[in-house]
Amino acid sequence: MSSLQQRKILLGVTGGIAAYKAAEFLRLMQKxxxxxxxxxxxxxxxxxxxxxxxxxxxxxVYTDIFDGAADSAMDHIExxxxxxxxxxAPASADFIGKLRAGYxxxxxxxxxxASKQPVAVAPAMNQQMYANPATADNIAGLQxxxxxxxxxxxxxxxxxxxxxxxxxxxxxxxxxxxxxxxPGSLSGRRLxxxxxxxxxPIDPVRYISNRSSGKMGYAIAEAAQRAxxxxxxxxxxxxxxxxxxxxxxxxxxxxxxxxxxxxxxAAQDIFIACAAVSDYRVRDAAEHKIKKNAESLxxxxxxxxxxxxxxSALADRPFCVGFAAETRDVEEYARDKLERKQxxxxxxxxxxxxxxxxxxVNQLDVLWADGGARxxxxxxxxxxxxLIDLVAERYTRALSxxxxxxxx
Length: 408
What we know:
By secondary structure, the chain is of the alpha/beta class. It is built from 13 helices and 19 strands. The chain folds into two domains: about 1-180, Flavin prenyltransferase-like (Rossmann fold, 3-Layer(aba) Sandwich); about 190-285 and about 295-405, CoaB-like (Rossmann fold, 3-Layer(aba) Sandwich). The radius of gyration is 24 Å and the shape is globular.
């Protein structure tokens, strides 16, 4: 557990019977080398006394923004700057809902909002509360906002119910913290990614586009950045903030995206083409708005250049990963695209049934020449994390094969 040496962890404790497990979690993190400080919500103090955490951590426990202590006036800023990770364990349903909504009515919520460092929550609640659609929506919202959600576990609960909602055991939470700080699977690698739709102008007012929201591509960018990659995101028009630490290149048309990719692709280690690029554009876009004077309107469309095929055909090509969004015969079409464009991998998904375009969940069949893997339906953040793990694994294997061939 040496990866936690000199790490600074801020442990948040909310109200719930699982609060007693937070003391063991604190002890395990300290044993692994971390410096831990504790913040408690008012309701947490009904379950465990602050003195317990003070004795274990060797530091005073923070409980209130205005507690009268001489050094507490800016705790919500200084503590947020101090930590490398803020983990809330246990995280009650009430706390999760308030955090998702951006509330700041206690010190711990304020710290979560003020922190630029990773934030993780370990849900702990009654199984029926966890199954409530409002809770599911709140958890999904946190994940979309980049908050790590660790757990919950399933089993017998203090109230006598059995089901999901138990906080992960302290040993499992420690493993999550260690993995978060472990060297990323793409450390030192340069990754180029396209995301979102493109817009092909018809006139200055109208355009041809598609239903892509960019959520999947932006989730992949964030997952790759967290895996240690230097990420350049070439994005079509979306209503999403760029992930922290990612270089954003904003484009609109397929032609602009082609130019942005081709001027950068040769210098990259990995290229992931997740954007939903318009296959066609209007041959001659109107200079002025087309007026509604005729009963019908005919537009002549011409094909756009294939960005992924062009990048794959480069002499000094990156490791190329394509996407295939299909409505039928998903694997058949994806295999054809994989072979035709000579890609290293392709991620295929069926559009519809609540996943894919405009949705917050997705599922992928990831294929390569001699195999593949299924990523079951999950939040796009989780699907992106699993996809990046697969990309890193296949890229490393391809790199090793190339190096072995060169040595011969």
